[in-house]
Fold:
Amino acid sequence: MEINAQQIIQQLSAVYANCQSYEDQGYVETTIDAGTAHERRERVSFRTAFQRPMYYRLEWKRFDPYTGQSKPEETEVIWCDGAKAYARSRFELDFHECESLDHAIASATGVAAHTVSSLLMPNILSFKFLRHGNLSSAPDEIVFNEKCCHLCATTDEQRTDILVSKNGFVLRRIREERILKGAANFSLPPLPPGISDLERQEMIAVLNEAAEDLHEVSDCSYTNVRFDNQLPQMIFHQGQVAW
Structure:
């Protein structure tokens, strides 16, 4: 029997909320203002591990958009040992304790951090999966050789496409397309005295770009998802890179 979009989300949510452990690997490709002079691209690879009640780890690393290479020292990580949460950015030599796991995940901006964690811990985290938007169905798609239900959640400023495997209701892909509002009616602040004409022009160009609306697309794929495997506890108790 065919089920509707809301029932698919309910099935998906139940799979993640009821599992005892979870692992994934994947990547996010983000493009801002594609096809324009201001186009920017970023590719991030990530890995997640989770075990109930509240053991959590997320690692991610950015790839150079021109060379396609990454540097191990630029890997970032957040984790929770079941009670306290920690984080280490690529700009830090050591990790630091976070106020809460909620704050740690919120600091790891991006769909990869927020989507799955909100499904795994719906009663712990403040952000929720698909809090807003009108939900509808689109034609099925094939992702990683699996037939997937295609759902769309839309608001005035964002469209979210969700691909859920029909085999086990596993999230395979989530794509967010949105408009980032600029300060369209901002007034140009006074520029520092003594700067050159070239520096002045460059500063004005940066301020003008910040005032424009930006078109952002984030495409997140989950390439390797596993539920209810035994996980080594050490990955939730230290901040060294385990990639």
Notes: The longest strand covers residues 214-227. The mean pLDDT is 84. The chain has one domain: 5-236. The helical segments are 5-18, 101-107, 111-120, 197-211.
